[in-house]
Specification:
1% strand; transmembrane; membrane; oxidoreductase activity; quinone
């Protein structure tokens, strides 16, 4: 791997005749649609298997046509537009959400960049096109899809869709920051933002081995970016009815569902390209079979890797419960973003030292020494900060308990963080409850329990 920036050779792109470009574009669209149809059935089958259920088994062999039947059903449903909706934006929002999801696949390589395959007698690359800034193009089109969800929630004219749209906007923006930092680590190692060049730089070792932290960060952020469980806050039916798409039906609702699954395929393809060697065959196969990375075989390895990542999506949904929204945002802003920035600085330092000719052992010692110094400084800072904060927290807790009003605003409110509910009156003793039932005094102030049961006689006497 060259320590300097790689010189991208993209001359093979842009030379195909127009009809071949159309064929490639249709193939990319068909690949996404067929993968989505399969992923929906596969998800329902796998989740049913995890929950000891049968799953779809009526339409087609083994229920494989269930997702196609669902799509036809949605298209034939009545298309309802609510009265309070902004009609133009309401209709445009599903299109804005779905179209960018299809655009990112244009720069994903399905095979080598050279003229490896022949289509109707014309040699071409297994990629629609490539750009020197292809990864920035993917980030850009992914960001545009957020507008579709936000506009859908706002244009519906309802409270719950608006909350779902705002949740989705905050979630996607926060997780895209950590995703961009994970991309930057790959850019530093490959020296390029071109997808075909990034795959070419993984000839010896995949980046999942060289950049494991970046891979883990991207896996977490891609789940948050696609609004999938356990990060499906914008669509949490438990508290938002259905989220941003509550007021949608028929084909518009189907387009939101299509956009979600296409985004799953897209982020899985990006993960395969950046960290899993792209279209390259796995290690045992590539060592003893020279033709594994030539011809149409790279398409098979690429599809297998994408399907494994889709299975990871399904596995998470069937395993982990939905997190609270504050936990989701805390993970994004207080964990993923700091870790991604620190890891990016470490990767940049390693690359700079390697370019200067330092040995790997010296680099490891420098990095380990820097990490130990940071840990020591953070430990000392936490120790002195805790001593000063204990007294302030105790005083603040006393003030909050004194100032807490459970009926603030005229209706019951829960205590804020740091506040406590007032003490609950203890239950009366059993003998006192029996006296109350039999007509005795109902409080201690009415008279002693052992005295007269008549309050007036006790006072006269």
């Amino acid at each position: 791997m060259s320590p300097h920036l790689a010189a991208e050779d993209l001359s093979m792109f842009g030379t195909d005749p127009w009809w071949l470009v159309v064929v490639k574009a249709v193939f990319c669209f068909a690949f996404l649609m067929v993968t989505v149809l399969f992923a929906i059935v596969w998800e329902r089958k796998v989740v049913a298997w995890m929950q000891l259920r049968i799953g779809p088994n009526r339409h087609g062999p083994w229920g494989l046509l269930q997702s196609l039947a669902d799509g036809i059903k949605l298209m034939l449903k009545e298309d309802v537009i609510v009265k309070r909706a902004d009609k133009a934006v309401y209709v445009l929002a599903p299109v804005v959400a779905a179209v960018p999801a299809f655009m990112a696949i244009a720069v994903i390589p399905f095979g080598p960049a050279g003229n490896e395959i022949s289509i109707f007698g014309h040699r071409t690359a297994m990629q629609l096109t490539d750009l020197p800034i292809a990864m920035l193009f993917i980030l850009a089109v992914a960001s545009v899809g957020i507008y579709g969800i936000v506009l859908a929630g706002w244009s519906s004219g309802s409270t719950y869709p608006l909350l779902g749209g705002l949740r989705s906007c905050a979630q996607m923006i926060s997780y895209e920051i950590a995703m961009g930092a994970a991309f930057a680590s790959v850019f530093l190692y490959s020296g390029s933002m071109s997808t075909s060049e990034i795959v070419a730089q993984q000839n010896d070792r995949w980046y999942i081995v060289l950049l494991p932290v970046s891979f883990i960060l991207y896996i977490v952020t891609m789940v948050g970016e696609t609004n999938r469980a356990p990060f499906d806050m914008p669509e949490s039916e438990g508290d938002l009815v259905g989220g941003f798409n509550t007021e949608y039906s028929s084909i518009k609702f189907a387009m939101f569902m299509l956009a979600e699954y296409v985004n799953m395929v897209t982020v899985s393809a990006v993960a395969t390209t950046l960290f899993l060697g792209g279209w390259r065959a796995p290690w045992p196969i590539s060592t003893f079979w020279e033709g594994a990375n030539h011809g149409w075989w790279p398409l098979l390895w690429f599809v297998v890797k994408v399907q494994l990542l889709l299975f990871f999506f399904i596995w998470l949904r069937g395993t982990l419960p939905r997190v609270r929204y504050d936990q989701l945002m805390k993970l994004g802003w207080k964990v993923l973003i700091p870790v991604s920035l620190v890891w990016l600085m470490c990767v940049a330092t390693v690359r700079a030292l390697r370019n200067e000719g330092y040995d790997f052992t010296d680099i490891a010692l420098y990095i380990a020494g820097g990490v130990l110094v940071l840990l020591l400084l953070s430990f000392l800072a936490d120790m002195f900060r805790d001593k000063g904060d204990k007294g302030a927290e105790a005083d603040r807790a006393d003030e909050d308990r004194a100032a807490f009003d459970p009926m603030a605003g005229g209706f019951p409110v829960p205590p804020l963080p740091g506040q406590q509910l007032p003490p609950v009156p203890r239950r009366r003793p059993r003998r006192e409850r029996e006296l109350i039932v039999s007509g005795g005094p109902d409080t201690q102030s009415d008279g002693p329990v052992s005295g007269s049961t008549d309050g007036k006689e006790a006072s006269d006497g």
